[in-house]
Structures are given as structure tokens and as C-alpha cells.
Specification:
6 helices; alpha+beta; globular; 5-stranded mixed sheet; 8-stranded mixed sheet; single chain; Fumarylacetoacetate hydrolase, domain 2; 250 residues
């Protein structure tokens, strides 16, 4: 099976009640091929890229998963539980770009990255992979599946000049009015800007790169919350603001 066949299966599985298995496709061999599958899948879906979720592979390589523009919604948001199972919810610090961040030979510095950011915002990412557990354990396949992204909610925002230390913000989360998280920090790299800085200097997506207006999210501040039934989620990040979303049954 070709990589384009895998891309089409991923596109078709957007609304499918079942997961793809390793018997359904040939996984990409590496991150580069996975990025090609991402791009081909979006062409089949016919959706534009509204942003990227950024992170690191196990070997430290900066990686990116596209977020579809129609699935990025402002709070308060309403999301239907997907047919193929529950969600994971992550509360994150994200960045809305005010200028393109094109690839260049000279590495970007931290202050240059922040100069390209128009807003620092609180977000909730929804994850619901289109792969079964065995397939999702194959990292290139997981990357091809947009790192499991199902959607994103954007909440309150501040200008970069208003935000101080990104590494020590307090995050509080409630589910149905019950406190489930209250902690300072919690980002995988301790610094929410680090994945954006790393990826800006190592861009390898096949979707046009980091563009003005995109929402860039870089990792959860909380342990992902399993969502298997309708509920209300609210969260706040000190120095940024609040966000709320409703998950409803189909």
C-alpha cells in the first residue's frame, strides 16, 4: 500500500466509528514520510491548516502536527463526542502568529520568535487518534495522524508584552465544577516557547510552514484528561485568562 493510500484512509477515518490498524496501511518509515502523509491527507480532506501542534520526537527532533482550520474554535465551544470513542483534553499555552516565520539559514533567537507572536493564549486541545493502540505506538504513523489532534479551542489571550515568565504560570482546571488540577508549570519542556523556537529552526512540514494568523500550541500543562461522557470543562492560566467548553453526546 502506498503512502497516499494511507493518507486517504486517514482522511476517510475523520468521521469513521472505527480505528485503523497496522493491517490497514503501510506506516511511513520516518518523520519525513509522515509529514508527506499529513499533507496528502489534508488534500483529501480539503481543509486548510489553521495551526500546528509542536513537540519533540524521542531523539529530540522537532516535529509538527497540523490542526485543521475548521476544528479551531473560540471559547465557549461545544464539541460532540466522536463516534470512534472518547477524547483526551489538554490545557495549553498557545501562540497566535502575527507574522510569517519562514525557514532561513540563520537560526531564530528567542526574542525574534516572540517578535512574531501577536497573542499568547490559553487553549484546550482535543485528542482522538484515528489509529488503534498498536498503530498509534508506531511513531511515524502517529505523526502522520497529526499527533492525534481532533480539534482546538482558543480562550483568553494577552499580548506578549503582558506575559512574564512562561515557565511558572499557575493552571487550574475544573470538570463539571470539580477541581481536577491546580499546579504551577507542568509543560513537558518547562518552557512553552521552546518547541516553537526549535521547530522554527528545523521546519520540515509539507504544508507551507508557519504563517501569520496560525495558532501554535506546544504541549500540555496538565495530565491529559480522559473524556468519555458529556461534561463541562473550564480552566484558567494565571496571567492569561480563562476558557470553557462543553462536550455533548452525538
Amino acid at each position: 500500500m502506498s503512502l497516499d493510500d494511507f493518507a486517504r484512509r486517514l482522511a476517510d477515518s475523520q468521521s469513521s466509528p472505527t480505528h485503523l490498524t497496522l493491517q490497514d496501511f503501510t506506516p511511513p518509515r520516518d518523520a519525513s514520510e509522515a509529514m508527506q502523509v499529513q499533507a496528502a491527507s489534508l488534500r483529501w480532506i480539503g481543509a486548510e491548516v489553521g495551526g500546528f501542534k509542536l513537540g519533540f520526537a524521542a531523539d529530540g527532533t522537532a516535529i509538527a502536527g497540523p490542526m485543521l482550520q475548521p476544528t479551531i474554535t473560540p471559547a465557549p465551544a461545544r464539541l460532540i463526542l466522536p463516534a470512534r470513542g472518547g477524547l483526551l483534553a489538554e490545557v495549553e499555552i498557545a501562540f497566535r502568529l502575527s507574522q510569517d516565520l519562514p525557514r532561513r539559514e540563520r537560526p531564530y533567537l528567542r526574542n525574534e520568535i516572540m517578535a512574531h507572536v501577536g497573542e499568547v493564549l490559553i487553549g484546550i486541545e482535543w485528542l482522538c487518534t484515528r489509529l488503534d493502540a498498536a498503530a498509534a505506538a508506531n511513531f511515524p504513523a502517529w505523526l502522520a495522524d497529526r499527533l492525534g489532534n481532533h480539534g482546538y479551542v482558543t480562550g483568553a489571550c494577552v499580548s506578549p508584552a503582558q506575559i512574564g515568565d512562561l515557565q511558572h504560570q499557575r493552571t487550574k482546571v475544573q470538570v463539571n465544577g470539580v477541581n481536577v488540577h491546580d499546579k504551577i508549570g507542568g509543560h513537558p519542556q518547562n518552557d512553552p516557547l521552546m518547541p516553537l523556537l526549535a521547530y522554527a529552526n528545523a521546519q520540515n512540514d509539507a504544508l507551507g510552514g508557519l504563517k501569520a494568523g496560525m495558532v501554535i500550541t506546544t504541549g500540555s500543562l496538565i495530565t491529559p484528561l480522559p473524556i468519555t461522557r458529556p461534561c463541562e470543562i473550564s480552566a484558567g492560566i494565571e496571567g492569561i485568562g480563562a476558557i470553557a467548553a462543553s462536550i455533548v453526546a452525538a
